[in-house]
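hiii so my PI (J.) wants the whole complex modelled not just the main chain, which honestly fair. so below is everything: two entries, each one labled with what it is. i double checked the lines twice but i was tired so who knows lol
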Amino acid sequence: MSAYLTKLNTIRTTRILDAKDESPTIKTYTLQDELCAKANPGQFLMLWIPGVDEIPLSILNAGDGNVQFSAKAVGDATRHLNTMKTGDILGVRGPFGNGFTETRGKVLLVGGGMGTAPLLFLGKRLASKVDRLSYIIGAKTKDELIYLGELDALCTEESAVATTEDGSYGLQCLATEPLEKMLVKDRFNMVYACGPERMIRKVFDLAEQRQIPMEASLERLMRCGIGLCGSCAIGKYRVCRDGPVFTMAQLGEVKDELGYSKLGFDGSRIDV
Amino acid sequence: MSSNLLTTNIAGLKLRNPTALASGILGYTGDLMQIIAENGAGAVVTKSVGVEPNIGYLNPTVVQAKAGLINAMGLPNPGIGDYAEEITYAKTVLQVPLIVSVFGYSAEEYAKVAKKAIEAGADAVELNVSCPHVRFTGSEIGQNPKLLSEVISQVKAEVKKTVIVKLSPNVTDIVDLAKVAVKAGADALTAVNTLRALAIDVETQMPVLSNIRGGLSGPAIKPIALRCVYDIFEALPKTPIIGCGGVTDWRDAVEFFLAGASTVQVGTAVATEEPKVFEDINKGLTIYLKKKGYRSVKDIVGLSHQA
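here's the output for the full assembly
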């Protein structure tokens, strides 16, 4: 483990191969990186924006020596990243974390906002192997439903639902609203979720009620990315090292915190 | 684990085995520290806590070196007011002694935090007078004999439980500072904190850490830490020493015991290996002691000095 982790954890600086505008605030970046190119769906990378910050980002796609990820301008780091273009230098470490477990049968992806990225990556891997792939994705506005086209190519029409908070596309509600109906109507073999933690909590509660297996990828403040600093603690787990993907049973163990609290930059408990 | 073989104590603080979680690693929450205890640690040391909440530095705060890690977290912590609650909670779940790492910007602050930590339930305090990357605290205190002495005496005046002092290797002669610490009342010494270090990226031609300078830990510093322990034991054979710096397996631990440490702390290896590194060290140590015919790990402390 040790020598391999040392390799993964060493920062590689590389020029941006491509930076594609997805919406006024979201871009998808392509970098050449042999190690991240081997990432599995659900794994993440640490992105160094030289002179600004280093942040964890979900991997959107990996293969052929390249890795892709999307970022929405929300904080100082992502706002700066949003101004960067092809040829600019970024640093990467990783891929880190465990990733999703592949399953068969009827599979449902539930994504909120940028949390849809790792689910699209997973969907591409699963599409040809499962009986049926369904999705519910939600975002604030139509602009931010950036993976809709690619997901539609993987799923049949009747098993696809999109929601927006402002009603600019699909249903005007949160992604969890149609979920309840979908879980009543259909017996899924697995629900995969990624998005805001309150959404994940709701998905967990619904899946638990109906005893449907689920996995969720969680987000926390991360500094080291390798399970050292404890910034991403949830219960007895380190999101960066023991996760970011957790099973239903594990989510049950951290019920007191899931959807409620996390550690802030100073290590105090704050609301999610 | 055969109990008598591995039990030890640090100036009266009884440990089931001679391994402890080093400060700065995972030590925000009682739950994560208990996971470390479940993985075999004999004690845990928290993140360093000060008077006020502190968010620390921006990332990158940890950078990989060839045989270790360089970190400059900037002492992020919620402040002792909030953290006192976590200490009290941690004591309800922890199976092993809880040592709270304390820092401050004056002797008064160290004493205030230490007192509150003990009141909240800590079994001992470890004074961080050796963090190499925050101004006006840490090693800026530990490198200054007068300040070091003041800090320790004031803490000792407020705290009845074990007071451990964690020394900096970034000094001309660590033995001089060790003597100052013991004279001022330190019950035990931890040797050592990280070594001041730097990483530069060749593409951007920039230092990688947001704070530029950080502290090197891991296998790269083990021989230096070992020499520090050896030197301190030679000068102060009666003072309990906690060896810290690059301990990754039982052989490293045994080297530290032979040099004069009675306990070792493990930090970097929790991430570069797995948390069960503690269990692995204890297993290897047990086999070593039995094979060599010792009845207690205490019997090998400082043995290399006889050669």
